[in-house]
């Protein structure tokens, strides 16, 4: 990533309870845009980055559909730009992770690795994480051939054959990216038609390095030191086959990072936080932005837009109190 750890602020020391007007949880496009807007409202927001600065967008090699970048922009570069822009207006970006929240009364208490915060308002932008296949061998071989991030691990598969699982935009986008390194990318999809958008579909179908195996699931990953073999099953015929590969990239959707808020905020069955069009949750002064509340759009631009809306509403909320 292009940002430097030196550019992050020092967190509140342990034991000290730091009072903030707007605390933003998460540093993806939603969180950093919320910070920009709250900073421009002179609310001196603090952003707790979480473990993955820039969120999922930062793991994307090139973002081609964020307006203003006609030639595309690197995911981590965009995160860096978001951070710089928010900091220019006074946002503090702290490399820290929230572990628990108490939303029973205001100010809301957030306990992070490096300190405790008392926040008049919260913008929750903790994003989502990659789903796992939950097959035998997946956990043991993660980092040894099994991956959820082509940008992070693609280089290790130079001149090798790899498998991608999934039929959505992520699977196709990452498969196309992997053709930079791999000699062959086999996309294994459980149905015979793709969920991905037409532009990506055409690009994937036209790419001579990409092949598809349809109506098929991966049932097991095996290998001693590293991944060597996948056991596949055709869902139409029931036939099982073995597929040799050193790389298995899994892109089968996401789960929102909302465990901390269970029992405190209204959510749907999948854990996405309920909000209205003003990004308000069922707790006053607690707003959401990005993929914690959006299982539908999941775009950098929509997450950034939700971040802006959440911060504008947080500003109105705090103004009414002053
Ligand atoms: P997604 O659209 O939910 O697609 C997930 C894919 O994984 C689907 O094809 C699904 O199969 C398959 N799948 C799910 N569970 C599976 C399992 N247990 N075993 C095998 N296959 C499984 O997720 P996504 O691709 O991560 O995209 C998420 C959102 O982000 C979408 O709205 C997408 O448009 C957006 N996105 C956009 C871009 C872009 O615009 N460039 C890039 C990335 C993501 P089925 O199709 O059979 O359900």
Task: Provide an overview of this structure.
The protein is an alpha/beta fold and 322 residues long. The chain has 2 domains: 5-129 and 255-321, FAD/NAD(P)-binding domain (3-Layer(bba) Sandwich), CATH 3.50.50.60; 132-250, FAD/NAD(P)-binding domain. 22% of the residues lie in helices and 27% in strands. It contains 6 helices and 19 strands. Strands 1, 2, 5, 6, 7, 8 and 19 form a 7-stranded mixed sheet that branches. It has a 5-stranded parallel sheet with strand order 10-17-11-12-13. Strand 7 (108-112) and strand 8 (115-124) form a beta hairpin. NADP nicotinamide-adenine-dinucleotide phosphate binds at residues 65, 133, 165-171, 173, 190-191, 195, 217, 251-254, 298-299. NADP nicotinamide-adenine-dinucleotide phosphate is lined by residues 65, 133, 165-171, 173, 190-191, 195, 217, 251-254, 298-299.
């Amino acid at each position: 990533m292009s940002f430097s750890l030196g550019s992050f602020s020092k967190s509140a020391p342990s034991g000290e309870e730091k009072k903030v007007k707007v605390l933003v949880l998460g540093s993806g496009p939603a969180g950093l845009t919320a910070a920009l807007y709250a900073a421009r409202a002179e609310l001196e927001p603090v952003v707790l980055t979480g473990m993955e600065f820039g969120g999922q967008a930062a793991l994307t090699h090139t973002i081609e559909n964020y307006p203003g970048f006609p030639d595309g922009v690197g995911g981590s570069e965009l995160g860096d730009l978001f951070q710089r822009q928010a900091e220019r207006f006074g946002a503090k970006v702290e490399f820290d992770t929230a572990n628990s929240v108490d939303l029973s009364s205001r100010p809301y208490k957030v306990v992070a690795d490096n300190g405790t915060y008392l926040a008049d308002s919260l913008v929750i932008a903790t994003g989502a994480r990659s789903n796992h296949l939950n097959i035998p061998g997946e956990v043991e071989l993660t980092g040894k051939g099994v991956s959820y991030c082509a940008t992070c691990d693609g280089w290790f598969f130079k001149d090798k054959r790899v498998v991608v699982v999934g039929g959505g935009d992520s699977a196709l986008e990452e498969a196309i990216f992997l053709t930079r390194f791999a000699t062959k990318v086999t996309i294994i999809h459980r149905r015979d038609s793709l969920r991905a958008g037409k532009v990506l579909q055409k690009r994937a179908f036209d790419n001579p390095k990409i092949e598809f195996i349809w109506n098929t699931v991966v049932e097991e990953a095996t290998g001693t030191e590293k991944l060597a073999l996948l056991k596949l099953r055709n869902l139409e015929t029931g036939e099982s086959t073995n597929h040799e590969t050193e790389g298995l990239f899994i892109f089968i959707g996401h789960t929102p990072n909302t465990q901390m808020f269970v029992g405190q905020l209204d959510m749907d069955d999948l854990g996405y936080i309920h909000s209205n069009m003003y990004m308000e949750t069922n707790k006053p002064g607690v707003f959401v932005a990005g993929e914690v509340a959006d299982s539908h759009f999941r775009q950098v631009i929509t997450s950034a837009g939700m971040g802006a809306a959440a911060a504008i509403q947080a500003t109105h909320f705090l103004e009414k109190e002053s």
